[in-house]
Amino acid sequence: MSLVRRLTHSYFVRRVAVMIPQVFGITLFVFVLLRLLPGDPAYLFAGPTASPATIARIRHDLGLDQPIFVQYLHYLQDLLHGDLGTSLVTSQPVRSDIVDRFPATLELITVALVLALVVGIPLGALGARKPRGAADHATRSYGLLAGSLPDFWWGLMLVFVFFTTLHVAAAPTGRLDIGLNPPERITGFYTVDALVTGNWAVFSSAVSHLILPAVTLAFVYGGPIVKHMRAGMANVLHAPYLAYGSMCGLGRWMLFRYAFRNALLPAVTMTGITFAYLIGGAVLVETVFSWGGLGQYAVQAITSSDYLAVSGTVLATTIFALVVYAVLDLVYVLIDPRIRYSR
Amino acid sequence: MSTLSLRLRGLGTFPARTDRSLLAGGMIAGIATLLAIVGPLIAPYSPTEAVGGDQLLPPSAAHVMGTDSVGMDVFSRVISAPRTDLTIALASTVLAILIGTPLGAIAGYYRSRWSGLLMRISDLVQSFPVFILAMAAVIVAGHEVTSIIYVIALVNAPIYIRLVRAEVLSLRERTYVEAAVALGESGRTVIFRHLVPNAYGPILSNASVTVGMSMLLTAGLSFIGAGVRVPTPEWGSMIAIGAPNVVTGQWWTSVFPGVALSLTVFGFALLGDTLARLSDPTQRDT
Question: Chain A residue with minimal CA distance to B227?
Fold first, then answer.
């Protein structure tokens, strides 16, 4: 009851309200970016053989001959109707292109971050147990090392070792073995959909294709999670309330639980930030593994001046990031009851 | 405190008894800088010339790191690449600091509506997907080295706005600032004569990290073809042209540039981490 009240009481509303000007800012930014991209869109639509009259007509049809602020209003109007325009490359509505590819990226980064959390949280907690001990040194070095690796190169190295040399991993050719059809679309996550429909061949293929890219991302982006868990735990272990608890005779497990929950906040923050970052930041790893997600769509759109696809992707990833940040702020309240945002 | 102590303004005093990680980080950064200057001069082969018939030779005495798919010597290219990668990284970091420091200091010193707006704008820039934003911006600005520098600087500037603002917010309450204000010094003098020089410890240690991150961003952009173009020696594009070969077993084309890149970024990160640790009295060794 108190939790529900805390969440709904003003802060939730205010936190969501903050997103409205942010989203407007983003649309304005993306619109400007769109107008700056090289290549006259009318010319691109018309094709190389069109006469000047045709191009002028298309320019008029697209509204490109109107004042820039009128164009922006039209752009906003289309956005409110969920219309992101049509991709020049795929000839599909950009919205459906994004909806098609979004689950691929989301599945990859979700699995990667779950991996990073499952390994990183205990590792970080372990590192904090004895400052300057072996575990502390190892986690500290890992944090620095992982952050220094170019993710695309690390993915390539894993492919070389586990696919080319040892023949234990799947080929870096996308989300499924060539020749297999994707499972019936329910969530868009191949593993989940295959499991729900009981399609074991597709499930095992999807899992085997997920392993290498997910491990790549988990290894490279798990560094900050470990680092913050270690720092959080190290801070908490010196807290007077733990000394007090220990003097009162609380068991080690109990003390660990108290410390753990208080130390979790920085690591959770880092995970959320990484999650938001990776939606647009897994581009390079997606390219290495031909993943066919949002990142690869962006690369393709940018290199072929597909300006509506570019703006649509930037818009989608940024709004997703904002939503993740908002959710993160709300999760804090769940983890740490001392945090109250209401005045 | 021994007499042998090194005093760095803003970093506090720390023992000159060299810290091992400081030494390692400094050495890596130093070697990379040295190679940026002399790399192409000491390369055994031309770093941009493809030799027909010498494609995909494995490492040997003649070609220490082998040759790539068009017959360029990998070793010569690996040691010539810092001139591109490090120049872009250093220049964009300096530019990001030059943009971020005054803006952050002003936003921290004058707590007005405008500084609030500035912070919201920098939040906005930070919430964009960095990589996609950088990619799109490079395409808009062109594949020139200078435009890559501008783009990376723009992406990194908010970090310094935030960092300097946080420092200034705490420094502005100090008595020496109060004294300066009481003496009738203008806001500009207070900010640039008193606040900024005292805020540069964290800037310096963070700059080292930013140099590494900028190098990763440069290499990433080149990897997908939105950065430096072949045949200019650059680690990211070398990894990219070697990628198909790695999958079929000719590992040397991508392994060596990747190791060089990771090691250099690691060196700068280590340097920054150590400087930050030494400048923070709560973390310094006793």
Answer: A303
Residues 156-215 of chain A with CB under 8 A from chain B are 156-157, 159-160, 163-165, 172
Looking at the complex, report in whole angstroms how far the Cα of residue A258 sits from the nearest Cα belonging to chain B: 24
Which of A257-271, B5-19, B222-236 is predicted with the least confidence, judged by mean pLDDT? B5-19
Distances (CA, A) of A172 to A134, A216, A288, A291: 36, 12, 7, 8
Q: pLDDT tens across B154-185, in order?
A: 888 888 888 888 888 778 778 887 888 888 87
Alpha-carbon distance of B250 to B69, in angstroms, equals 9
User: What is the pTM (predicted TM-score) of this model?
Assistant: 0.82
Token pair recorded at residue A28: 């304005």
A317 contact B CB<8A: yes
Find all residues with CB under 8 Å of B244, minimum gap 6, and list them: B69
The residue extents of the domains of chain B are: 16-43+67-84+207-283, 91-205
**Regarding the domain with residue range B91-205, which homologous superfamily does it belong to in the CATH classification?**
MetI-like (1.10.3720.10)
Q: Which residues of A touch B121 (CB under 8 A)?
A: 25
Residue A247: count of CB within 10 angstroms of its CB: 8
A171 to chain B, closest Cα gap in Å: 9
Contact B247 A313 (CB under 8 A): no
N- to C-terminal Cα separation, chain A: 19
| Number of Cβ atoms within 10 Å of the Cβ of B232 | 18
Contacts of B242 by beta carbon, 8 Å cutoff, 6+ apart = B68, B69, B250, B252, B253, B254, B257
Among A123, A143, A127, A146, residue whose Cα is nearest residue A135 = A127
CB contact under 8 A, B129 and A172: no
